[in-house]
Write a structure and sequence with these properties.
The chain is α/β, with parallel strands linked by helices and 428 residues long. Helix content is 41%, strand content 16%. β4 and β5 form a beta hairpin. α8 packs across α15 and α14 runs antiparallel to α15. The relative contact order is 0.19. Keywords: Signal, Transport. Belongs to the bacterial solute-binding protein 1 family. This is Extracellular solute-binding protein.
Amino acid sequence: MGIVLFTAISFLAGGCGTDITSYPVFLRNFQESVPSGNINSDKGTLLIWFALDSAYLHESQVERYHQYLAGMVDEFKKAYPNVKVNYKFVASDDLLEPYLHDIDHGFGPDLVLTKNLYLGRLMERNALFPIPYNEIALDNFRQDALSQMEYGGKLYAIPVTLGTQTLCYNKKKVKQVPTNLDEIVSLSRQGYSFGITSNFSDTLWGLGAFGGKVFNQEGEVILNQGAWSKWMEFLITIKNEPNVVFIPTSLATNRAFSEGRLAYITCWSLAIPELVASLGLENLGIAPLPGLPGAPSSPALTGFSFVLNPTSNDEQRGLALKAATFFTNTEQQQQWILESRSAIPVNVHVQIPSSLFTIQAQLKKQSLTATSYSMKEIDKIEFMLDIGERFYTSVLSGAITSQAAAQEITEQTNQYFAEQADHESKHQ
C-alpha cells in the first residue's frame, strides 16, 4: 500500500505531449542540440535498458514513451554517429532479477534507467559502478538529486528526473487553492470535497508543516519528537469533517477525482497525465500541498537515475557515461519536461516559463520543499513501511495514541538497524 511513496515517477508517467519547437523560447536550444555532421569520433556498441513503471500507465502512454525514448536515442546517435545503440524497455517491477542475473554472469546492459528505490538493493549485490566525480558536470544537477545517488562518499548513479506529491484540483469545481492546512477544514465546510490518500507513507508529506523530519543528521528515525504525533492528531480531527474523504490508495483517490467526485486530492506527479486525459488540460490545477505559516509541506522527492554496469569494460562504460550525460543535458531535459507534463528537471539550467507551463512550474515549486532521501534512508523507510502502516491504522481507529505509535515506530526501526550495523561490524 505504501510503496507508492517510492514508485512515483514523474517523467515516466506518460501523457499529453507538447511539441517543444512550437514555442520560440525553446526553439534555439532544441535546434542546437541536434548536431550537424559527424562531430564525435567515438566508436562501439551500447546496450541500454529503459525501465518503465508500466503497471501504473495506460497502454497508450507506455507506447508513447517507447516512441519518445526511441526518438531520444536517435538524437544521441546523431551526436555519436559511429556508436551503435541497442535498447529495450522493461517493466520496473521486472528489472532487478534479470539485471542481477546478467551481472552475475558477466554481461548485461551497459546503461540502465532504474528507480532510485532500487539503488540500495543494487549496491548490496555489487551491481553498481562508482562514477568518478570529475567525469560529470556536477554543477548541472540539483544537489538534492545527487544526494540520492551517493553512498560512502562515492557517486553510484546519475539522476535523470524527479517526482513528488502535490495538490491536484478541478478548476471547474473550485476557484480557491488552499495554502494552509486549516483551509481544508473551512473549504470542506463550504461544500468542497477533499480526497486524502490515507496510509503511512502517503501522509508523510505533512511532517514538514509541523516542523518534523523522518531522520536526524545521523540517519536515525526521529518520528517520536512530536511532529508526527501532531500531524496524526490533525488528520484525526479532519477525518470526520464534512466532505473530507480518507482513501487507502492513491489509485482509488485518482479514480474518484477523474470521475468528478472530488474537488481536491493529494496526488503523485505520476498521476498527472492520466488526470489531464480525464479532465482536460484546461481543467486540471496543480499547487503545492498546504502547510502551516512558515512551515511548508514536505513530500518525498522520488526519481529515476542511470546506473553503469560494473561488468562492462572501460570502453563500454565510457560510452554509457556519455549517453547518460547526453540524456540529461539542458536541451534533452527541457524536452522531457514538456513532453511528460509531470516531470521535475534534475538539470538546474532548465528554464520553463510558468505562464506557458503552469503544471511544470507548480511541480518544480513543490519540489523545493520536498525531502530527498539517501540510499541508506530509503532502506530504512522500506523497513519502516510495514511497521508504520500498522500503527497508522491503529492511531486513526483510536486503538493507540499518536505519541505511543510514534515511539514504537522509532524504537523498532532504530533497534533493527542498530543490530544490523553491529552484526556487520563483527563480521568485518
